[in-house]
């Protein structure tokens, strides 16, 4: 609604007044979640690529 404060507004306004520990905790959680999702995506892509290479090698052997 019109009276709601968005996360970016909260973060930028807290820079002027000093960072609130809750914002630090939230940022840590967000970064951690993004890191975990990124790692899972990388792992799944690497596994799929290895499987694709194995499939190609099997197809060449006959």
TrEMBL record:
It comes from the Bacteria. Keywords: Cell membrane, Membrane, Transmembrane, Transmembrane helix, Transport. The keyword Amino-acid biosynthesis does not apply. It is a multi-pass membrane protein. It is found in: Cell membrane. The chain crosses the membrane at residues 23-44. GO terms for cellular component: plasma membrane. PANTHER family: PUTRESCINE TRANSPORT SYSTEM PERMEASE PROTEIN POTI. Belongs to the binding-protein-dependent transport system permease family. CysTW subfamily. This is ABC transporter permease. The lineage of its organism: Bacteria, Pseudomonadati, Pseudomonadota, Gammaproteobacteria, Enterobacterales.
């Amino acid at each position: 609604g019109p009276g709601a404060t968005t996360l970016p507004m909260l973060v930028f306004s807290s820079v002027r007044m000093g960072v609130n520990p809750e914002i630090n905790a939230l940022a840590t959680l967000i970064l951690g979640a993004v890191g975990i999702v990124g790692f899972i995506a990388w792992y799944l892509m690497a596994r799929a690529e290895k499987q694709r290479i194995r499939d190609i090698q099997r197809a060449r052997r006959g």
